[in-house]
Amino acid sequence: PSLQTYGSINKMLDKLYATNNYKFINYDIVQENNTNYLKLYVTEDDTRHFLKIGLHYDEIFKTGLLLNYSAKRLLFQNSNLSLDIVVGDSPRYYFNYFIDNGYIPGFGLYSSAMSFDLKNSDNNTLETWKWFRNEAYIQSVWRDKFAMGGGVSYDYFESDKNGQDKQDAKYINPYVFLKSDTQNDKDFPTKGFYFNAEGKIVDLFGDELEKKPILVKADIKMNFYISKMFTYRLNLYGGITLGDNLPSFYQYRIGGIFEQNIVNFKRFAGYQFGLLNDNNIFLASNDFQLRFGKNYFLVGNFSIANLFDSIKFEDAVKLNYSSIGLTAGYKSPFGQIKLNLSKSLNKHKSVFSVVLGHWF
């Protein structure tokens, strides 16, 4: 038993609704023997299988048709399964199966595969990557807002530099994570907080165990609601490498506008996708978001970044790259529509980007 307010009860009910496991939820407060008891009345949703279709376009993966299948309570009572298959210019898939036990650690499996091009500042392809990942992980809830856990990932990479230099590599990497997302919208948030931190040992079972590099990174987004029309958003991203011999596939890379989870790539307007790379990174992005009417947005951006090879104070405090950008956006029934024009302040050409539909 615990002391609860009406506000805390409503928040807990919202969390129950968010599980999509119930069609009806109601409660009553009953007094017995000078003690108040909370009684819940629920009707479970028997729907277990869902199929969705969506369209998306961005400058990295181009056009894609999404086929999403999700299932609840498949094999286990608290399980959730999601399978995304993208058919188009860059076929890819994402699979996730998780047994959610709340505070008690649950077990999950994840798999994804994709391919993409790395280009120079003139938009010419320099290198093509293929990336395949499998993961097994455990996850628990901390303080109701954070997901924490750890697991082991298997990565397979193929790299082709225009047919001249082909490489492939396999890595097994144990990792731990802590993450939270309370943002009120994925595409144009006005409130909330996002946090994602990860520590990883790269190539655990390779040669020279004592020299294994360790990656530590954190991604933080804070939305400051100023008024109904104006929101300021600050995104801080940092990553360091402890040890030497970091494979190039795991270097921190910035450039391009995207939200997909791609190794250690991070969006940075004004540059081509993944154009800049090094072993350590600090990045700060400032968004000034104006909202017109209900679904129209104008977002100005100023970003700075530092990429450096070794963890030294004189290298870490330098700011090597900066950019400015302007985005016109519309929240449509079929997902976001964004037109972005951004310019590097380091004498690179302007970059125009189009994003249509939800990220996947």
Structure summarized in a few sentences:
The protein has 360 residues and is mainly β.
What would your notes on this structure say?
It is built from 2 helices and 21 strands. It has 360 residues and is mainly beta. It folds into 2 domains: 1-46, no CATH class; 48-356, Porin (Beta Barrel). It has a 16-stranded antiparallel beta sheet, with no helix packed on it. Strands 15-14-16 form a 3-stranded mixed beta sheet, with no helix packed on it. A two-stranded antiparallel sheet has the order 1-2. A hairpin with a 3-residue loop joins β5 (79-88) and β6. It is globular, with a radius of gyration of 22 Å. The protein starts with 5 loop residues before the first helix and ends with a strand.
Features:
single chain; 360 residues; mainly beta; Porin; 2 domains; 16-stranded antiparallel sheet; 3-stranded mixed sheet; 21 strands; 5% helix
CATH class categorisation of the largest domain: Mainly Beta
> In total, how many beta strands?
21
Structural class estimated from helices and strands = mainly beta
Taking the alpha carbons of the first and last residues, their distance comes to 42 Å
Strand residue content: over 45%
**The CATH superfamily title of the largest domain:** membrane protein fhac: a member of the omp85/tpsb transporter family
Looking at CATH, which topology of the largest domain would you report?
Porin
Quaternary structure classification:
single chain
Order of helices and strands: HEEEEEEEEEEEEEEEEEEHEEE
The largest pleated sheet is described as:
16 strands, antiparallel
